[in-house]
Design a protein that fits this description.
- The structure holds 2 protein chains of 2 kinds.
- Chain A is mainly beta.
- Chain A is built from no helices and 9 strands.
- In chain A, the strands form 2 sheets. In chain A, strands 1, 3, 4, 7, 8 and 9 form a 6-stranded mixed sheet that branches. A 3-stranded antiparallel sheet of chain A has the order 2-6-5, with no helix packed on it.
- The mean pLDDT of chain A is 95.
- Chain B is mainly β.
- Chain B is 0% helix and 56% strand.
- Classes of the chains: A mainly beta, B mainly beta.
- At the A-B interface, strand 7 and strand 8 of A face strand 5, strand 9 and strand 10 of B.
Chain lengths: 109, 120
């Protein structure tokens, strides 16, 4: 059981906007920065968002992150077929150190 | 270009030992924080261990006393020595570069992973 809670699946059609949530507690999401990762099976996971809403160089601005209280969200706009992947959130936990979400499998219909 | 290449994964019997290696290029391992993160089938990622630039190491409770992280600065490589392996250690093991400062944490580069299967 992962410390951070994500929906197991999400879906959307090309061009749509989808959001993936990451719910935690005051000891992790509520008091620390959240990061997001994309994992396409067979490839190395990739950092999408760090420090709640910062995009590394090379990540399209279709990807955005936000946080409010003990929940964070990843939004993907203009959905594309290549966005079909697993998405994970992560954060510091004040007592357990590094924690992750269980992952959300995004399907592009 | 930053690259991380893991090796050493295998099928191993419970109670056995395995040593994973992670060869880094494009940056210096000894001046960065390096972690291992594992992904078990049907589960979310689990952080396993970290070695700080100063050499300090930390472990997840699930592997403490069984796993040892180390680095070889001459080869720019990080290792994970895994002893007393259990069925629930079965996972894809990733070598990752970690950025952590204050309440900030993220993993900016990941390898492709190496598969460890513990089974009799």
């Amino acid at each position: 059981q992962s410390v951070l809670t994500q929906p197991p699946s999400a879906s959307g059609t090309p061009g749509q906007r989808v959001t993936i949530s990451c719910s935690g507690s005051s000891s992790n999401v509520g008091s620390n920065y959240v990061s997001w990762y994309q994992r396409v099976p067979g490839t190395a996971p990739k950092l999408l968002i760090y420090n709640n809403n910062q995009r590394p160089s090379g990540v399209p601005d279709r990807f955005s992150g936000s946080k409010s209280g003990t929940s964070a969200s990843l939004a993907i706009s203009g959905l594309r077929s290549e966005d079909e992947a697993d998405y994970y959130c992560a954060a510091w936990d004040d007592s357990l150190r590094r924690v992750f979400g269980g992952g959300t499998k995004l399907t592009v219909l | 270009e930053v690259q991380l290449v893991e090796s050493g994964g295998d099928l191993i019997q419970p109670g056995g030992s395995l040593r994973l290696s992670c060869a880094a290029s494009g940056f210096t391992v000894s001046t960065n924080y390096m972690s291992w993160v594992r992904l078990a089938p049907g589960k979310g990622p689990e952080w396993v261990s970290v070695i700080y630039s100063g050499g300090t190491t930390f472990y997840a409770d699930s592997v403490k006393g069984r796993f040892t992280i180390s680095r070889d600065t001459s080869k720019n490589t990080v290792h994970l020595q895994m002893n007393s392996l259990r069925d629930d250690d079965t996972a894809l093991y990733y070598c990752v570069r970690e950025v952590s400062y204050g309440n900030q944490l993220y993993f900016d580069y990941w390898g492709q992973g190496t598969l460890v299967t513990v089974s009799s």
